[in-house]
Amino acid sequence: MLNTLIEKCHNKSVKVGIIGLGYVGLPLAEAYVNVGVSVIGYDVNQDRVDILNSGQSGMKHIDDSRVKSMVDKGLFKASSNPNVLSEVDTILIAVPTPLDIHHQPDLTYVIKTCEVIRDHMREGQLVVLESTTYPGTTAEVMKPILEQSGLKEGEDFALAYSPEREDPGNPNFNTSTIPKVVGSDTSEGLKAALAVYDLIVNTVPVKDTRTAEAAKLVENIYRWVNIATVNEMKIIFDKMGIDVWAVIDAAKTKPFGFHAFYPGPGVGGHCIRIDPYYLSYKAREFGLSTQFIELAGHINQSMPRHIVTRTLEELSLRQRKALAGSKVLLCGLAYKKDIDDMRESPSLDLISILEEHGAIVAYHDPYIPVVPTTREHPEYSGRESVDITGIKNCDYDVAIIATDHTNVDYKLLCENTPLLIDTRNALKDLTSEFKDKIVKA
Ligand code: SAJ
Prior knowledge:
Radius of gyration: 24 Å
Order of helices and strands: HEHEHHEEHEHEEHEHHHHEHEEHEE
Oligomer: single chain
Strand order of the largest sheet: 3-2-1-4-5-6-7-8
Helix content: 25-40%
CATH superfamily of the largest domain: NAD(P)-binding Rossmann-like Domain
Bound molecules: ligand SAJ
Structural class: alpha/beta
């Protein structure tokens, strides 16, 4: 059933379809084009389709020249017409898997995508889900929808799961150099999926789709729980007058059995703080609870409020000032350093809690000159980053370092602010010079 597909992979005449042309789908398309394989991208967003077909990426971390080269080679085109899905030999799905307002998995995009594929798929195709999700999604959610087409998995089409491991902007790894876990519930499906992915990357075959789905969750739950651990350590060592960053730097000299994580103002991004709850959801189906995930969530999500409490305490102790009415400069809106992505950023929670206390909050982030509209905080859209070169005339009562961007003039900040709350150890090189005004929190 899939011999043709496998044959086409071997002679590189295979046509790859990719659904979802975002931070996962576009680099995936580029990896195939770079090995001479033709790609048709399908996206429901016509604006996105037009941007890509005009040779632009629409994303800061992907240079337009890369997309232009793909288009100019004649090996890539984007379309919002689902009919293209019958023209391709394999369909790779890279659509969002967020949480809904009840903090439950939201598979709307995956389900809608499967319904479109169902209505346009043909015999002999391989369908692969790449989006992070709970074990069982491919077999229990996708397969029934796709089989409504009348085609049968393992006989008429193949189905597999291969988790995306994109890390946007990571200078050390890219789509073609990050090993790709691949699982299918049929031997044909695994063979076909390996043939498709072997074209661009080293593959790691696993027993079935559930193993592959679970592997991705474990990767990110590992981070979620370990970040919570160091956040708790920070609170404990703070009380003991111990610098947690110095402790971690000492611990990481152990050449085995330790991986350094660092405390922060909370956990942002659309992976680490979301993926663990996909496992929590599925575990409840088996009458089980995921205590570490929930506890880590409690700790990580309490960090912004902890930072505000420490700010309030230090303002009161050092300046006999209340937080209400104080001028606060929040340094860093992005959820991690040197990127412009502020999705789910703890900085947004910091602003909200500071203003709840009556503080007057401004922000500085060299990567985010203006706050875009976000789902969770539309009220902040349009706010502008303040230029700190004029900071000496701004009389801020306190600056909170929430993101440790490299390109910020921290010395200027320390010279012109009476109190600095450093949640990232960003001021480590200035601590001796300004030790009386820097508080690690
Ligand atoms: N964070 C900490 N302390 C740490 C590490 C992270 O507070 O020690 C915070 C970050 O500031 C951020 C959040 O956690 O707010 C998430 O940070 P992250 O470094 O995990 O970055 P992400 O969310 O971009 O995670 C992605 C993941 N990649 C994929 O899911 C494919 C993750 O698996 C990668 O390990 C991570 O990038 C990475 O290493 O850059």
